[in-house]
Amino acid sequence: xxxxxxxxxxxxxxxxxxxxxxxxxxxxxxxxxxxxxxxxxxxxxxxxxxxxxxxxxxxxxxxxxxxxxxxxxxxxxxxxxxxxxxxxxxxxxxxxxxxxxxxxxxxxxxxxxxxxxxxxxxxxxxxxxxxxxxxxxxxxxxxxxxxxxxxxxxxxxxxxxxxxxxxxxxxxxxxxxxxxxxxxxxxxxxxxxxxxxxxxxxxxxxxx
Length: 208
What we know:
globular, Glycolipid-binding domain-containing protein
């Protein structure tokens, strides 16, 4: 069960936004990621709880930030309920999208699990609903993902397989690299792995 800490930065001006303290685990039915967010001064800033099924689809998503809350799942595309800080009203949304995304590193793992591109394949297009702090307002966007290569790095135990992706924003044309090892993000725009207490988990092959 990997447990560790990411530092989060603005991907444009690199200002420090806070930290995400996480643990995650694979299981026979999928993968779960749970984290707590802190501000640059160490105060609580929110949380992430994401569960995927064995095919990478979001079984359950719960986000908290600045009093806002989102709960969602894969249902008729993706469906969610967003509640305001006062708790006086809740707005339900639905989109013909494949999965969710947001500021958390968890969503990079989730998208890679859903798409599972092979090295050398053409880029795969995916439609996402993004929830970003502080207000978690939904926004639909399109990306393409391509697995450029996989590299084996020697460790004291088994080799560490690092997958290097190129991700394109299809609206803006912006491109960036994402580096994953199992269920841990090694590096991505605005995300740095600062501490890891145990090796990343390996995913089982998807059902045929």
